[in-house]
Design brief:
Length: 337
């Protein structure tokens, strides 16, 4: 049976009814589990007894590392079965963003990603995804800081490969009886899981979608992202167009720049041509170092030249993503346990 932490509000009401408890208690219990504004002692004695008999997901904190600039904190969390994940809290001026994991390991096998080298160990449940957010909000509350404002599903794992847990977690996180986050402030990152993109577009809430492209031809992309063989660029971009039509939201295109692999003027022009006319925003990400990949990030001059070509020839907005926590292995592609 699922933990209370895994249940959306409607699922919690169903659980209460199954156990012969008045579902009018669902709102208070949901707040207890997902918001912290209700204490166990606030509930009636019989409800307290029922809650204490249920499982709640509270991961064990194994360690914390803090970046040299103090803006990024990475935590290693362990769940009851002994499996571990990393989750990251990033501080910006006046706000905090959480980088949340969706799987232990990852099946996608991107060659420059440390998580991908682990392979997929298992999916996280909805409650294990939301538990990371609750934990980080607790860290911020202890520091007397405002709760998380933005979430990026860019931690360990391919979120859309774990769609059932992801969609339930998103429903919990955006529920006003829980953290109450705006869907517009939650970004789902995928390496190109086309069926998942199409499912995401059908959800009642519209989330930001970030698609890792990294190559403008199937040959180039396939060398970096093995699943391109299953869902080639033409299928991927068509799903992105459909996502925009369904949701009215532009798609963010992530491009990790690797010196000598995908940073040339020719590749920039190919990318500009590929994306011209689409409702997209390109995020350039200088490669973050990982232990088992020998690639390097390009020079700043090369990055700026690439940006200018894509922006001018594609008539596409382009930015260079701000890098955080690289010195403590908390950047994109660096999470591993």
């Amino acid at each position: 049976m699922n933990s209370l932490s895994d249940l959306t509000f409607s699922q919690l009401k169903d659980r209460l009814q199954q156990d012969g408890i008045n579902s009018a208690n669902a709102s208070a219990i949901f707040r207890l589990v997902n918001q912290g504004s209700v204490e166990l002692s606030d509930l009636g004695k019989n409800i307290q007894h029922w809650v204490t008999e249920q499982e709640l997901l509270q991961p064990e904190v194994l360690r914390e590392v803090v970046s040299a600039d103090g803006y990024t904190r990475k935590f290693v969390l362990r769940f009851r079965d002994g499996k571990e994940i990393e989750t990251v809290l990033m501080g910006y001026e006046g706000r905090h963003t959480a980088c949340i994991s969706s799987q232990v390991g990852c099946a996608m096998g991107c060659v420059f990603c440390a998580t991908g080298k682990m392979g997929l160990i298992r999916n996280l449940s909805a409650g294990e995804i939301t538990a990371q957010v609750h934990f980080l909000n607790g860290v911020l509350a202890n520091d007397q800081k405002a709760p998380i404002r933005n979430i990026v599903m860019m931690g360990m794992g391919e979120p859309l490969h774990n769609f059932t847990s992801l969609s339930a977690a998103l429903e919990i996180l955006t529920d006003p009886r829980g953290p109450g986050l705006s869907p517009a402030r939650i970004s789902i990152s995928t390496v190109g899981h086309v069926p998942g993109i199409r499912k995401l577009a059908k959800l009642p809430q519209n989330y930001s979608l970030s698609v890792s492209l990294h190559g403008a031809s199937d040959e180039e992309r396939g060398r970096l992202i093995p699943i391109n063989k299953r869902w080639p660029i033409s299928d991927l971009l068509e799903s992105c167009r459909d996502y925009t039509r369904e949701t009215g939201r532009k798609v963010f295109i992530a491009w990790t720049l690797i010196e000598g692999a995908n940073d040339s003027d020719v590749q920039a022009r190919c990318l500009a041509k590929l994306l011209r006319g689409m409702e997209v925003h390109v995020n350039l990400i200088p490669l973050n170092p990982t232990e088992d990949f020998e690639g390097r990030p390009p020079s700043e001059e090369r990055i700026l030249a690439f940006l200018q070509i894509v922006r001018d020839e594609g008539e596409i907005p382009v930015t260079i993503r701000q890098r955080r926590g690289i010195d403590v292995g908390a950047g994109c592609g660096q999470l591993v346990v």
